[in-house]
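Self-study notes.
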Amino acid sequence: MELSDLGNKHAGRIGIVAGAGPSLLAVDPKMLKDLGVVISVNSSISKLTNADYFIADDIGVRTWDYYRITLPKIDATCLLYRKKLAGEANHIPKERVIYFDHKWWYDPGSKKYNPEGLILTKDPKAPLVGARTSAGTAVHFAYIMGCDPIVLVGCDCCYKQSKRYFWQFPGEKPCKRLTGEKVFCHNNRGTHKGYAVDSHSMDFIEYWTAFAKANPDVNIIDASDGTLECFKKMSLQEVQEEYGGVFDRK
């Protein structure tokens, strides 16, 4: 499969971009799948094993159990950043892997921003937007595939009960690095809008704010329970009522 195969593949359907924030605890995977096309970002796949797509930008995923053990067992099409993961996908059937390239948004070396690097394009052969979070890449894929609206879930950009990920809560199966390396995350940047945050949280908020400014005509809805204020806020139930589908909370 090639990137060009995705152009308008899901035109008019609701596209759901699922991060792994604490609010994903309250989301039922079947209900989410009934609502629209599900793009799972990084460790959210450990819960959303019925997702249509999985996406990752970071080479760090290669040591996680959800990437090495879960992905080969499910049917999701895997969208992987070529530069970092082209040599780390031999365990996934080739017909399920699509590689992509990126534009750039921020250069840490020069500390310069490239606002044009966040403008979405429908061209499936063009590099995708620069990404501080893989969820941004997922939004671009949803846009290329013709999804409308594009709905964010689990993109909280904050901590809850001192936890950054849904799988850190009691009752959830934790994700693990196969190297045995411990997961380090600490809300060390105080609070923002009443939520505990770390430096990554603040980077994500900056990124999404710039993303929204660069794409004012793209219908992006935030159904997460977190800090973002740059997109329209709606619950999943409200999304279903306004845009249709067979979503049912019962």
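Second protein, same conventions, sequence then structure:
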Amino acid sequence: MKKSDMDFAYIATGPSMKPTLCVGDLLAISVYGERKVVAGDVVLFASPIDGRKVAHRVIAVQKTCIRTKGDNNRSVDSWFLTPGDIIGQVVCVRRGKKQIRIHGAALGRLCVIKLKTIRFTEKSISFICGGLYRYLSRRQLLYGYSRLLFKPRLVIFNRMQGKDLQLVLGRNFVIGRRMPGKKWQIRWPFRFLVHKAYQ
């Protein structure tokens, strides 16, 4: 990550922007200065509710406010921001040894459409094949074979609310998560790869 690309860096801490931003990513932040905030940009700001720093995508720039939303969230953020609330734009991230450009403006909006298309496709396939998928997952018929090729590891994050458990393939591909006080959520179609204790 070049120093010229950023004014300062910030570590991503939550799942609301997955897969655009992942927990542990090093975010390069560029201060806007004279530039205008536009819809599609991923911006860093202090939450009006508790002051913690949040990186979300701008979905609308209106005359009196800026609206944001996490790429992985279903609903728009409840707050209304002003340009003065925006700390800067997320321009790229370092994830392990990879550096990933974070597109803003029109390209950023296209990235969101691509993400929604992928999720819709996953849900459609899951719905069509759901019965067979659930049967094979519960019976663990393929678990033994899948374990030879794929070995998910358990990663634990200590949060204020409790332990955040994640099942990870490879370096950082999260296939399952259990938030404090909730059940495991395993991403389709990875139930074949995990033991029934995680289902």
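Instructor comment on the second fold: The longest strand covers residues 86-95.
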